[in-house]
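The methods section describes the discrete structure representation at length, but only in general terms. Since the whole study asks how a given chain folds, the encoding of that fold should be made plain. An entry of this sort, consisting of the sequence and the corresponding backbone structure tokens, reads as follows:

. . .
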Amino acid sequence: MKKTFSWEAFDKAPIVAIFRNLDSNDLLQVAHCFKVTGLSTMEITLNSKNATEDIARLVKEFGEELNIGAGTVCDMDDLHAALAAGAQFIVTPILDEEVIQYCVTNQIPVFPGAFTPTEIYKAWKLGANMVKVFPSSALGPGYIKDLLGPLDSIKLLPTGGVSKDNVSTYFKAGATGVGVGSAVVPKTFLQNKDWEGLQEHLSQFLKAYQDTD
């Protein structure tokens, strides 16, 4: 039986790292760096070249240690392709009721994208494990804090514009987790195949979260 999503691992490092169009071999190196440094959760967007193949390969090689999921899941066709590849969690950029309900019914962690208070509340009521507030870069941590005034029972995953420099600010605002794109694995490390440097960067990123008061 394939490894399922580990909430224990995620709770220790509640950072969803988003990867789009990375070289397949680089992804394996990055996964190794995650394993070494304590980050646990990698999202491969379905609009990447070789996305399903990369998900399947990562799950096979790292599925016991890491959470490997699919992002940019927009409809049921995308969902079935992701699950067939072995994705352990699902992230959407939009609110698709059918996708959410399927995941909830089948106990697959799902983080649907929403932005307005109404969309966020609806996604939560449909059974989302966390609601991806996207794009969070538009209004920043202050928006997360404002949302959690009236909607304090909802778990929010702001995504977009999160970096090592501001990650603690999002958690101080009340975020349960964050979604991070290129800031978590800057291109310079990939271009230079600097895996030791990447490990140091990832350790610093994780420490920035851990230092949140």
Summary: The chain has ten helices and nine strands. The longest strand covers residues 15-19. The mean pLDDT is 96.
